[in-house]
Task: inverse folding
């Protein structure tokens, strides 16, 4: 019989995505099925999501879930077993999943505590169709309280795992919310979920879960250091024995240049076809000829991503022949600075804002190099998409970027293993020098082709990582 795991998350591809978390939550069920695990994904029924399910069934109800009635609708969406927590008082909002134009929703702590409460109840008593998980796998702070409620409910036969996708988001709430969040005051201590006088949902998960994972081996090590742990490094040091770095994979059904319906298809053997995508992208953005590398960025426009450093480097980069196409979301200041550069040099620099999945595919296919100069990067997906699409990644040596890209230093080039450009200090000089290396490498056609081909051959799918998750789940019962 299949083993059962309940994944608890605030977003999941194909239902709703604001970042890499959704890609991973959406890819894990398929990847784990191979290893005999039946994973169902519990997430909020944001407006419109229930309609995407064919014949949903009510599999769980509650008359008072944090201030109103709630039900869970079970059904399949593109091959994934999804459980939508339908609680209109919490999720029927006009804005985004976390915020609207006036900022974060004030009741976010309750909104995601409710998700965790439902998860723990499902683990305690099962769904009406008899399904009951053996493992609850929570993601980020939005899932952080699930292990706490499991413990509060005295559920002893279900194990819990929490995955940290980004430690910058910690789910803090004032201590006055203890009651509203149905948390026991005894655990409001520095050994429990108290964090600088507040409640931290993420810390709660880190302290209470049976195992912790994060999305790359390097980030797992970084999290235990002051520069990256964001105040939680001590908690992670204390739990080092159960902390695992498991690299995210790429959903190769979606990200493969030879089958991608959004582009002119190509493969490592037909790399010259990539040129059509480059030409189309240049046309789409109204650029002129770009004699050097066409760099691309698909990203949230934030300082985490190091993109504040980019605008001032562009005069030199374009003067040396480079071009730039950006698809960005959020971050009005960085957007303005990039737009200013695009206005000065519209034949070499193009920028689009907003979220556009199909355009992101055309950009990865049409670019020569993808820039990911992050200050920290738990795993990062866009460098991996770049590798798969022969779009050479230029990355900072941090987190998953360090784990997935091999720098084109002379030794790696002569050994035939290099896949990109890795630079060590995310500051103005570091990025400037990396961009100069990019110009020079692009000129060296033979080496450039080698980088492209090596990247396209790299094993980036879920095979290895899903096996690691399955082994981890199984180990929780030993
Ligand atoms: P993070 O989760 O920190 O934002 P990741 O690299 O892990 O960063 O994942 C970002 C995901 O979101 C990738 O799949 C990337 O292609 C996608 N993405 C980011 N910005 C946009 C955008 N403006 N339009 C379309 N896709 C985007």
Result:
């Amino acid at each position: 019989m299949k083993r059962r795991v309940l994944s608890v998350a605030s977003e999941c591809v194909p239902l709703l995505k604001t970042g890499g978390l959704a890609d991973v939550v959406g890819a894990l069920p398929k990847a784990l099925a191979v290893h005999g695990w039946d994973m169902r994904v519990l997430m909020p029924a944001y407006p419109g999501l229930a309609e995407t399910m064919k014949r949903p069934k009510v599999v769980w109800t509650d008359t008072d879930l944090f201030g109103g009635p709630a039900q869970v609708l079970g059904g399949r969406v593109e091959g994934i077993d999804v459980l939508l927590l339908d609680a209109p008082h919490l999720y029927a909002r006009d804005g985004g999943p976390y915020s609207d134009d006036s900022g974060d929703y004030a009741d976010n702590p309750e909104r995601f505590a409710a998700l965790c409460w439902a998860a723990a109840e499902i683990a305690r008593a099962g769904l009406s169709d008899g399904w009951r998980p053996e493992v609850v796998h929570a993601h980020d702070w939005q899932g952080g309280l699930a292990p706490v409620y499991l413990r509060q409910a005295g559920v002893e036969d279900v194990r819990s795992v929490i995955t940290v996708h980004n430690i910058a988001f910690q789910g803090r709430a004032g201590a006055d919310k203890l009651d509203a969040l149905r948390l026991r005051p005894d655990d409001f201590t520095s050994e429990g979920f108290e964090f600088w006088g507040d409640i931290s949902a993420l810390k709660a998960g880190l302290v209470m879960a049976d195992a912790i994972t994060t999305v790359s081996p390097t980030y797992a090590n970084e999290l235990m250091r002051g520069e990256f742990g964001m105040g939680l490094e001590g908690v992670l040091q204390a739990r080092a024995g159960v902390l695992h770095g498991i690299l995210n994979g790429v959903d190769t059904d979606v990200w493969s240049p030879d089958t991608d319906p959004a582009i002119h298809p190509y493969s490592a053997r037909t790399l010259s076809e990539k040129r059509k995508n480059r030409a189309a992208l240049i046309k789409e953005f109204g650029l002129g000829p770009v004699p050097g590398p066409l760099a691309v960025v698909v990203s949230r426009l934030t300082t985490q991503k190091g993109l504040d450093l980019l605008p001032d480097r562009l005069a030199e980069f374009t003067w040396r022949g480079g071009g730039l196409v950006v698809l960005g979301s959020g971050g009005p200041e960085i957007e303005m600075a990039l737009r200013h550069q695009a206005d000065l040099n519209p034949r070499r620099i193009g920028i689009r804002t907003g979220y556009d999945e199909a355009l992101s595919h055309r950009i990865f296919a049409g670019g020569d190099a993808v820039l990911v100069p992050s200050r920290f990067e738990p795993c990062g997906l866009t460098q991996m998409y770049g590798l798969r699409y022969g779009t050479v990644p230029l990355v900072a040596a941090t987190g998953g970027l360090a784990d997935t890209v091999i720098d084109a230093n002379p030794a790696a080039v002569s050994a035939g293993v290099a896949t990109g450009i890795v630079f060590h200090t995310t500051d103005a000089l570091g990025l400037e020098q990396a961009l100069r290396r990019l110009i020079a490498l692009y000129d060296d056609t033979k080496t450039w082709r080698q980088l492209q081909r090596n990247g396209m051959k790299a094993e980036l799918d879920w095979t290895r990582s899903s096996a690691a998750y399955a082994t981890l789940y199984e180990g929780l019962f030993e």
